[in-house]
Write a structure and sequence with these properties.
By secondary structure, the chain is of the alpha/beta class. It contains 14 helices and 19 strands. The protein has an eight-stranded mixed beta sheet with strand order 12-11-8-13-16-17-18-19, with helices on both faces. Strands 2-1-3-4-5 form a five-stranded parallel beta sheet, with helices on both faces. Helix 4 crosses helix 6, helix 5 crosses helix 8 and helix 10 crosses helix 14. The chain binds ligand PMT. Ligand PMT binds next to helix 10, helix 12 and strand 16.
Length: 407
């Protein structure tokens, strides 16, 4: 089991229905949102999805058997039930729902359900007739009375060819709902403005200067801030990411457009987090028509550049202003450069990542950062950008409150 003791710890129960083939995706989505996941399969689930696949995505050994002496010696089932911050059963078949509703603990998953005090979520998946059956509805009512949250099901075409309610809701919806429900609402009542992604500085209608930012780190922060209770506005450069639910998104292209969008919204923000990789320079002249090769000298073609205004500096340098957190993408002496950048741009805190490491930073799933503020520094080792985001949101909320800005 990994040791990131701030990640949310989730037991993912998987029961034996066709939707079990989506369980590795549920694991991946939960991990992307910063969770540590231990899959627990019923015997029937092992007919639909392999332990090998789940082990690979969860990076934790799946559990299947109450009588597995080796697994029990490593962590007994009662200990496992205590370890969990949440238990999610996806898919939950009619059979497993019935056993949970009646307190029947005849395998590892149902035993864990009785032994845990953590919140429990079930995502039903079954044939429409089984879903509509009075016995299933009675069992679900009982589970709801017992405090279990029922996620879905979705309506539509089923694996058996019938139509109607009974499909498991999609893995990203399960992950988002569960993570939001178990997040600590450390930013309740705050308004957070975040920039993400690159900017594009056009030379002519087809050519531009930009960088490798994918927007993933900024979008992950926006989701984490939303789950922590904040009202989030996300100013996004050109990225291929869908808008997270519940977040206001403003799309921009150039640094100038990003500056205009931020300047307009900063007076309403309590916290501004500048994750965007804003281009420092733009071409001096933007040509209306595509530049022809024949019009340029055959060698040594030069483009005159002019400096873009510093967005985060322009917000941090003028009172009244929000609590300002910048990011620093460095390739050498990251801490030294980031400390200097924080002071120079008057930021309350800065998050530095070493972008010379191809496994983190630009356009990767993982990051490793150090948060630097006036009172100290905190390193976060390599983990998913969602996990980094959640840890940063907790720290930013603490700093914001101790700066006397929060409630
Ligand atoms: O998008 P991903 O693929 O997930 O990658 C994430 C990331 C590597 C882009 C991110 O973690 C990151 O490091 N973002 C900051 C990138 C950057 O531009 O760093 P910088 O050191 O050049 O700028 C310092 C700060 O000034 C940043 O907060 C930046 O947003 C801000 N800035 C820079 C220039 C400018 N004209 N205006 C600004 O506001």
């Amino acid at each position: 089991m990994r040791t990131d003791n701030h990640a949310k710890r989730i037991l993912l129960g998987i029961s034996g229905g066709i939707a079990a083939y989506k369980a590795p995706l549920v694991v991946r989505k939960l991990r992307n949102l910063g969770a540590d996941v231990v899959p627990v399969l019923t015997q029937n689930a092992t007919r639909f999805v392999t332990e090998t696949a789940l082990q690979a995505v969860a990076d934790n050994r799946p559990r299947t058997d109450l009588w597995d002496a080796e697994a029990e010696a490593a962590m007994g089932h009662i200990e496992l039930a205590r370890w969990a911050d949440a238990v999610v059963i996806a898919p939950a078949t009619a059979n497993v729902i019935a056993r949970l509703a009646h307190g029947i603990a005849d395998d590892l998953l149902t035993t864990l359900y009785l032994a845990t005090t953590a919140p429990v979520f079930v995502a039903p998946a079954m044939n429409v007739r089984m879903w509509e059956h009075v016995a299933t509805q009675r069992n679900l009512e009982r589970l709801r009375d017992d405090g279990v949250t029922v996620l879905g099901p979705a309506d539509g075409e089923q694996a058996c060819g019938e139509f109607g309610p009974g499909r498991m809701i999609e893995p990203d919806e399960i992950a988002e709902k569960v993570t939001a429900a178990i997040s600590t609402r450390v930013l309740d009542g705050t308004r957070v403005l975040i920039t993400a992604g690159p900017t594009r500085e056009f030379l002519d209608p087809v050519r531009f200067i930009s960088n490798r930012s994918s927007g993933r780190q900024g979008f992950a922060l926006a989701e984490a801030a939303r789950d922590a209770g904040a009202e989030v506005t996300l100013v996004a450069g050109p990225v291929h990411l869908s808008t997270p639910t519940g977040i206001e998104r403003i799309d921009v292209v150039s640094a100038q457009e990003m500056k205009d969008a931020v300047t307009q919204r900063a007076p309403d923000a309590d916290i501004f987090v500048s994750v965007a990789a804003v281009a420092d320079y733009r071409p001096h002249t933007v040509h209306d028509q595509k530049l022809k090769k024949s019009q340029q000298p055959s060698t040594d073609f030069r483009v005159a550049l002019k400096e873009n205004e510093d967005i985060v500096g322009s917000i941090a340098g003028v009172e009244p202003r929000p609590f300002v957190v910048g990011f620093a993408a460095e390739t050498e002496n990251p801490l030294e450069h980031a400390r200097e950048k924080r002071r120079r741009k008057c930021m309350d805190a800065i998050v530095v990542n070493d972008v010379s490491d191809a496994a983190i930073g630009f356009d990767s799933s993982d990051n490793a950062v150090t948060l630097i503020h006036a009172g100290g520094e905190m390193g976060l080792p390599k983990m998913r950008k969602g996990a980094i985001a959640r840890r940063l949101v907790d720290e930013i909320a603490t700093l914001y409150a101790s700066a006397g800005r929060g409630s």
